[in-house]
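Explain this one:

_____
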Amino acid sequence: MAYRSGCHTTFHHRYHLVWAPKYRYKVFIGDVRLRVREIIKQVCNEMGVTIVNGALSRDHVHMFVEIPPHVSVGDLYEEGQ
C-alpha cells in the first residue's frame, strides 16, 4: 500500500469499477474484446490513472484503479465513452 503525493497532498484513491453493456449482452468477444482493452489502457494512460488489476469478461469489465485527486471517477467514465 503505497501513498502517492503531490505538492500539497498525499493520496491513496483506489476504486473498484464495473462497466456493463445494456442488458449485459455478451458483446466483449473477438476483435471487440481486444479493442475495448486497448481503449481502456489508452484512456487510463492519458488521464494518469494506474490500473492495479482488471478483468474483461464477455458481458462486463472489472477494474481496480488508482486515480489521482484531480480526476474524478465520473470524468474517467465520461472520457471512455
Summary: The two ends are 30 Å apart (CA to CA). The chain is about 30% helix and 30% strand.
